[in-house]
Fold:
Amino acid sequence: MPNDLSTEQLAKPIGMNTPQRSVNDDSGAHRRDQNRYRVTPQEVEQFAREGYLSLNHFLTEPEMATLDPWFEHFVQGKEPGMEKDFCDMSQPYGTPVEEFRLVNAMLPSKYRPELVNNIFFQLAQSVADQLYRGTAVMDYEQFLAKKPQKENAEFAMHQDLGYWPKTENTWTATFSLALSDSDLENGCLQVCPGTNREPELRKHQPKDDGRDESHTLVIASKPTDTLIYLPVKRGAVTIHDERIVHGSGGNLSGQWRKTYVMAFRDEETVKQERAMGFTHSHNDEVDWDEIIH
Structure:
């Protein structure tokens, strides 16, 4: 499939203005200093204003190779005892594994301690510390994989905060590391810049019967929403905040789209979540009506 505007327009969600692409050509390997990746003051300001960033050459190829086997281990369902933490994010819980389209493995370092303090975590922590004036800690992580030729392996447009408990401080930086090239054809990240500054969170509805049956929530778009695609190469990251409207399309390519997601939040916010019994595990037993916005 050609990556031109006509293709983008065909994929444009209803009610959104003409999609555009956003690429940060100034970022790259020259920003790396061992386990630290430097961001510019302009990028810090962009993240606060627009709600997203993309950074090229975040990890080197040898570093990526240390993560690849673990990714394959989890998305192939080889880790025992995960229950709903191994699921399809585009379909209800209980969908047979052979019918998965959007494979999700939650909290991999919880199940395999070998992943604790990995190089992706170290670099993401360094950037989170530059984006935030408080103390940021990792809140959760997940492996995501879109199977080839799965048009419905998509994330509906949403705001991450719609999924989470009520806390006073909502600041979040969610890093999505591309373990494979990510583009329009295989369903790269789509964001609506500036929607993070809307005064009210949009109303989220369960895609299926409810949160106990399916994790997925959806929102209605607005005519003023302007969609930006964030295609990235393997080893790059996109970063988005908790309020920006975002999602991603299905995978129309013949290759897997692979992503390692890691979210950082304020240290006290994470403590408040855990006190509510919320760990981001799909196996959490929580009263959704009580804790969710």
Remarks:
- The CA atoms of residues 206 and 217 lie 4 Å apart.
- The chain has one domain: 5-283.
- Confidence is low (pLDDT under 50) at residues 1-15.
